[in-house]
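Hey team,

Filing this mostly as a record. A colleague (T.K.) asked me to run one chain through the structure pipeline before their review meeting, and I want the input and output archived in the tracker in case anyone asks later how it was produced. No errors, nothing strange. Just documentation.

Input sequence:
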Amino acid sequence: MNAIADDAGQAARPPMISPRMLVVISLFGVYLLWGSTYLAIRIALADYPPFLMGAIRFLVGGVLMYAVLRWRGVAAPTWPQWRNCAVTGTLLLGFGIDF
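Output structure:
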């Protein structure tokens, strides 16, 4: 048997999808997700004010990121980390300067 062992001494499995195909799939995902946000913004602006829609987008994005990280087993943030994130988010969104 010609199995290649990894660092843990277990036989490494061959990749299911080639790295080149993973790049294509990833780019397609970015194009699809990023492009669909512009359509969603255009549709949502007819019903929601821009700042409310932005707040909803950030809230949904944050909840999804939190859920995925918790599902993957990452520890929940501590209270000081929540505070630091709140301060950073406020400074970036509320006081950011666009040149």
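Quick notes for T.K.: Residues 49-99 form one domain. The chain has a mean pLDDT of 84.
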